[in-house]
Amino acid sequence: MVIRISCVIIFGSGIHDEWQETSQILQTVSSSAYNVENTMQLFKSFEPSSSQLLLKSSVNSNTFAETIKFPIRLAQIFSYFPIYIGKQDEPLKFKWLYWRMGYSCVSFLLFVTEFIFVVVEAFKNKLTIIDIKVVVFHLGAVVQYILFFKLTYCWSKFIKEWSKVELHMRNYEIIENLKLKVACLASSIMFIAGVEHGLVNAYKLKDCFDKEPTAREAFQTFFTYAYEHIFHVIGYSFWLGSLIQFLNLQRTFYWSYTDVFVMLMGSALTYRLKQLSQKIKETTKIRVNDMVVWKTLRKDYIRISELCFIVNEKLSGIIIVCFLMDLYFVLVQLYGSLRNMDSVIEKVYFFLSFGLLLLRIFCMCIYGGAVYEEWKNIKFHLSTVSTSAYNAEMRFLQFYGIGKTEVDVALVQVEKALAALNDDCSNIEDDGDPDYEETDMSTSDDNEVALEKEEIPQKIKKCKNNKLSGRLEKLNL
């Protein structure tokens, strides 16, 4: 056993030794022979991690399409995401003629039907907090289904946007096993939610078995009491009660899965930002001044920023509904804590249920806000670049900050620069000769125009005023 472990360590670390030797040779290059290619080689060489030695196809397994497959398969058990999942290399497709699509549509029709029964039953009697809670729970399931079905319909395009970013970042260092992290996160939270839901129903069913002499009467009491909005209108049936119980399980899954899905999307975005942050950190350490390297990093950051906006656009409705549902049920739980709880089991259930709800909200905020935290790390690494390695590409990279306030300030500065330029050009037209040429300008005016040229972005140099545009062309702006 010791010999085997020693051999694994020796042969596995051989890659690290060879990498160190290559790095040392590159560092001993004389100043006369040193060029940009040496810098690029040092920049591309990185220390292999243990995950790259032990995991097969770790790059492919960390793609968004592969990472999200397990959560989608988990959701398809409860009629979510009726999208076709083929083989490993086959892309995800949306198909109308697919058995999962039929299962999903039937579930949605049953949700809407039961929601109508709930609303009718609620307005028949005097509305209470409990009645409103049932209505909100059923309404949330219907709205969540519609939002996820809309996302499923455009899922292929959504995956393509991720693939564009991942294609350009395929050579980035692998930080962690994202697929394993997502699977563990989804499994753990959904398992806890399932256990909590099962224990509640088991306790209620046990109470019915204690009160009724036979199992048939116990199930009848359980179903009629839990779903009285149905069995007040339709006669009791065991199979109908079982179907409604499964629909209730689906709605409970939807509520928990929505929180988990927001966490997974935040984790996937944070992973890509971490890769970029790590590469920027390594680049600043070795003081790379090559414009090509920084231009590549800036373009990758722009792609990730655009992906963040796309994700926000697709998930904005889901996030709002998710937070509203969680906030409402937190208030309901706090309201329920005001009454006396004589049973120990009831007290334990309250604390477990309320704690799980707070845990989900906390995790959702943490994983969702991690994207902003990673952006701050990137900004910090850029601020630590030495003066000798600083160049224009870094300044452009810092300009693309994910923040509304900074964009507003930048626009105000651009407007001021345009106003100042407009005033200068108006003064030139008033004072000057119509045949004014660039050779008649003083040296100070040249410097001012050149300075304004550097401060104004390239995209807003086209002026709508024809006279001003003609004068700018003469000034070579």
Automatic annotation (TrEMBL):
Q: Which UniProt keywords apply?
A: Cell membrane, Membrane, Receptor, Transmembrane, Transmembrane helix
Q: How does it sit in the membrane?
A: Multi-pass membrane protein
A GO BP term here is: sensory perception of sweet taste
Q: Which Gene Ontology molecular function entries are recorded, alphabetically?
A: taste receptor activity
Which is a Pfam family this sequence falls into? Trehalose_recp
Write down the InterPro entries for this protein, in alphabetical order: Gustatory_rcpt (IPR009318)
Cell location: Cell membrane
Where do Acidic residues bias regions lie?
A: 429-449
Where is region (Disordered) located? Answer: 429-450
Task: Spell out the family assignment given in the record's similarity comment.
Answer: Belongs to the insect chemoreceptor superfamily. Gustatory receptor (GR) family. Gr5a subfamily.
Classification via PANTHER family: GUSTATORY RECEPTOR, GUSTATORY RECEPTOR 5A FOR TREHALOSE-RELATED
Q: What is this protein called?
A: Gustatory receptor
Q: Which organism is it from?
A: Diabrotica balteata (Banded cucumber beetle)
